[in-house]
Amino acid sequence: MYNFEFERPGSVAEAVAALKSEEAQALGGGQTLIPTLKQRLAAPAKLVSLGGIAEMKGVCLNDDGSLSIGGGTTHAEVARAAAAHYPALAALAGGIGDPAVRNRGTIGGSLANNDPSACYPSAALGSGATIVTDRREIAADDYFQGLFTTALDEGEIITSVRFPVPEKANYQKFLQPASRFALVGVFVAHYAGGTRIAVTGASEDGVFRWSAAEEALASGAALDGMAPEADGMIADLHGTKAYRAHLTGVLTRRALQAMA
Amino acid sequence: MPEINMVVNGRSMRAEAEPRALLSDFLREDLSLTGTHVGCDTGQCGACVVHVDGVAVKSCNMLAVEAAGCEVSTIEGQAGPDGTLNALQQAFQDHHGLQCGFCTPGMVMSAAALLKENPTPSEAEVRAHLEGNLCRCTGYHNIVKAILAASGQDVSGIAAE
Ligand SMILES: Cc1cc2nc3c(=O)[nH]c(=O)nc-3n(C[C@H](O)[C@H](O)[C@H](O)COP(=O)(O)OP(=O)(O)OC[C@H]3O[C@@H](n4cnc5c(N)ncnc54)[C@H](O)[C@@H]3O)c2cc1C
Ligand code: FES
Ligand code: FES
């Protein structure tokens, strides 16, 4: 990897200032960024580590019952600290990669990266979460904008993520055992206002809500045999478009079964 | 080049390194602690697992500067000062938990992290915990057996495979 300058600020304000310089980039847990730097797919002039910012770490229950998770909180910490409040989210975090990856990787890094096969985007979209940054709040429905693309501006930092806690939820991850990412993953959350279904790993446009299934559930219909359009799904050596569309239907039904 | 300080296996150590130096390279090349192995250098294989402030990390996927000021434990710190293997290392030897030995430093460090958190894991828990540690030789059975034995559980009923 090319060399860079390195800064490790102690506050969000200092990090925002450090990121203003030319070609500066934030470093979360490095579990995606370091491999990217090694391949020279990124060559920032400066890395600004978010690892020393205490105000970006931890899980806390808000007065309105929603759960806030600091953008710098590791997957391992979410698996532990969210278990009592939002078990499906904690289980998702505890199933990412492997223990060593979970000890470094952060929720902010995962959502900023928006890998089409990552787990967290489905939880954020499926929960209708709010992405809180150093400068504004973004609804999950507006945040995810396609493969590796989000609403974040240059130098914008995810400081926390606020999850409305559902009555019930479940995440079904169909493991791609070599990468340990999701081949397809479906997050289903049931709220007083309806059921949300978010799908990762399947679409060429990244995480998406399967609205047709949400509407079918709202009208009291069963999802038997239902699957999204195969058109627009990812095809690679692990699975065809039709396979991923089929898996989406199967995993959604499994999630609903687990919640029943 | 900035100087990086860390406490490695209980000893204060320091060396100059560029910001881009990986913790794995810093340990191996600058501190001459070559027990930590680099198998893939892409975060997949777990041969490079060490503990930073008590938690297992893949040292090829962490910058050395990020571990500045931290307590780092590596495979070199596991045996006693006179070279006596600790219980986990001894169990790997007794139960043939290694063949070529390349993955072993990472296996031992991952297993040590598991046993600290969960002193008597089930076989399934051991296997799940080792998800990020690849071994090309043993087929894993004897590694799992060694870890269960090191946790004080009876493994006499588990056949060698
Ligand atoms: C072996 C392995 C297996 C994995 N398996 C899975 C899996 O099963 N499921 C899954 O979802 N992921 C998986 N991952 C990815 C992992 O979850 C990463 O931790 C995550 O994608 C990136 O988070 P990070 O904190 O490491 O971010 P980094 O790698 O440090 O950064 C990633 C990107 O986000 C930016 N960034 C980081 N933090 C912030 C922030 N707070 N605000 C704004 N921008 C930020 C960086 O500038 C960079 O562009 C795996 C990774 C590995 C190495
Ligand atoms: S060398 Fe670090 S995970 Fe393989
Ligand atoms: S003993 Fe050879 S790789 Fe595990």
Unreliable stretches of chain B = none
Number of helices of chain A: 10
CATH architecture of the largest domain in chain A, please? Answer: 2-Layer Sandwich
Structural class of chain B: alpha+beta
- Can you identify the CATH class of the largest domain in chain A? Alpha Beta
End-to-end CA span of chain A: 49 Å
Cα-based radius of gyration of chain B, to the nearest Å: 16 Å
* Secondary-structure element series of chain B: EEHEEEHHHH
CATH topology of the largest domain in chain B: Ubiquitin-like (UB roll)
Q: What is the CATH class name of the largest domain in chain B?
A: Alpha Beta
Strand order, sheet with most strands of chain A: 4-5-8-6-7
Main-sheet strand order of chain B equals: 2-1-5-3-4
Helix segment tally of chain B: 5
Multimeric status of the protein:
heterodimer
**Uncertain stretches of chain A:** none
Number of strands of chain B: 5
Task: Name the average pLDDT of chain B.
Answer: 96
Q: How many separate structural domains of chain B?
A: 2
Might you state the CATH topology name of the largest domain in chain A?
Uridine Diphospho-n-acetylenolpyruvylglucosamine Reductase, domain 3
Q: Identify the overall geometry of chain B.
A: elongated
CATH architect. name of the largest domain in chain B: Roll
